Amino acid sequence: xxxxxxxxxxxxxxxxxxxxxxxxxxxxxxxxxxxxxxxxxxxxxxxxxxxxxxxxxxxxxxxxxxxxxxxxxxxxxxxxxxxxxxxxxxxxxxxxxxxxxxxxxxxxxxxxxxxx
Length: 116
Fold this sequence. Notes:
- By secondary structure, the chain is an all-alpha fold.
- It has helices at residues 22-35, 39-48, 60-84, 92-115.
């Protein structure tokens, strides 16, 4: 069975041609790929959408990082609870080190997303 025909208002019958530098084209292609869109759809969304265009896919590597961060944050929450109850007063330096590591991981994730 054939696809139903679109209404005349829905047809894209107008064409606009633009010129891009190599860098602009690479950027558009990369952003479209990250968003799971074609370049044309990404450009249309960039031009006409009021929503932010950051629609990047979560890679398996990022998923693994997030899973590790969740585990670390759970441990930190348990440590904080025990500290607030007066237990483990000697582990403050451990918490400080863990906090530094979390900030480094967060910075690496942010830098990785910016470069991709």
